[in-house]
């Protein structure tokens, strides 16, 4: 076809080794992977097209049918009250959790229960075990979470054993929830629930910018093989992979990982 480069030919023949080897040995070729031919196809989009034609189009793993929480976990959900720490504490609350949330105009403060959060995270167990004051104070590292909505979603899972779904299909917030659960060593079931919700949200075009970030961090957040393949397929389907990656350097890094 008119306007095609050698990457288009390799993609049409599903020669992934050549595509990977070329950009690894010569990073200056990155722009060729986003070059459109006369029909508007980039090599990456063409590869996704041929994979789909061969019946290899990937779908996200089936969503979790609700996490099987223990009876004790279900009962804990009854005492969770996501109220501001500026108000009267709910029954038995002895811990203030604070998170910096620029979108909410500053620092958000929530009442929680020290024993519940200490049991949910080995990192929080250490941090809270070093405090004698009542109420105790747990400040969330803004590098791990900078959203009150994300914090509330994670805490609801810790208490009730399931997500509320308050983050909807917001890919940025779901990605933050996944990172938060991993960095804070929260229950594995929360990580799995966050992954399932995020992969489902990646099919929405407004979440395209999350795809290359997730692809580069797939091992860090412990995605399984099928989950990584799905994220890769979504990256190939990006209408403008270079723009989604954020910069040519990040696009190069993402393509190498892919």
Report on the architecture of this protein.
This protein has 13 helices and three strands. The two termini are about 25 Å apart. Helix 3 crosses helix 11. Strands 2-1-3 form a three-stranded mixed beta sheet. The protein has about 260 residues and is mainly alpha-helical. A hairpin with a 4-residue loop joins strand 1 and strand 2 (about 105-110). Helix content is about 50%, strand content about 5%.
SSE diagram, text form:
Elements: H1 6-12, H2 16-25, H3 43-53, H4 71-76, E1 95-101, E2 106-112, H5 114-120, H6 122-129, E3 136-139, H7 148-160, H8 171-183, H9 188-201, H10 210-216, H11 225-237, H12 241-245, H13 248-257
Helix pairs in contact: 1-3, 3-11, 5-6, 7-8, 8-9, 10-11, 10-13
Give the count of helical stretches. Answer: 13
Shape: elongated
pLDDT < 50 runs, ≥5 residues: 66-74
Proportion of residues in helical segments: 40-55%
Ends distance: 26 Å
Q: Overall mean pLDDT score?
A: 84
Topology as H/E string?
A: HHHHEEHHEHHHHHHH
Structural Rg? 22 Å
Quaternary status of these chains? single chain
Largest sheet: 3 strands, mixed
Query: How would you classify the helix and strand content by structural class?
Result: mainly alpha
Q: Strands of the biggest beta sheet: in what spatial order?
A: 2-1-3
User: Strand tally, please?
Assistant: 3
Instruction: State which percent range the strand residues make up.
Output: 5-15%
């Amino acid at each position: 076809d008119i306007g095609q480069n050698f990457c288009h030919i390799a993609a049409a023949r599903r020669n992934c080794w050549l595509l990977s080897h070329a950009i690894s040995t010569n990073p200056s070729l990155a722009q060729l992977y986003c070059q459109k031919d006369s029909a508007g196809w980039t090599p990456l989009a063409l590869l996704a097209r041929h994979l789909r034609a061969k019946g290899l189009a990937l779908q996200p793993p089936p969503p979790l049918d609700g996490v099987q929480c223990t009876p004790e976990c279900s009962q804990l959900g009854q005492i969770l009250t996501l109220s501001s720490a500026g108000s009267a504490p709910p029954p038995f609350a002895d811990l203030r959790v604070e998170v910096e949330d620029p979108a909410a105009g500053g620092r958000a403060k929530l009442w929680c229960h020290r024993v519940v959060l200490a049991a949910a995270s080995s990192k929080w167990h250490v941090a809270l075990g070093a405090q004698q004051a009542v109420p105790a104070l747990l400040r969330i590292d803004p590098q791990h979470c900078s959203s009150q909505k994300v914090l509330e979603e994670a805490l609801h899972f810790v208490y009730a054993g399931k997500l509320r779904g308050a983050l909807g299909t917001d890919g940025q917030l779901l990605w933050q929830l996944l990172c938060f659960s991993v960095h804070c060593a929260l229950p594995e079931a929360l990580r799995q629930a966050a992954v399932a919700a995020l992969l489902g949200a990646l099919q929405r075009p407004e979440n395209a910018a999350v795809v290359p970030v997730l692809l580069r961090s797939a091992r860090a957040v412990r995605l399984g093989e099928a989950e990584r393949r799905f994220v890769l397929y979504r990256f190939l389907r990006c209408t403008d992979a270079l723009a989604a990656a954020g910069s040519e350097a990040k696009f190069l890094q993402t393509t190498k990982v892919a």
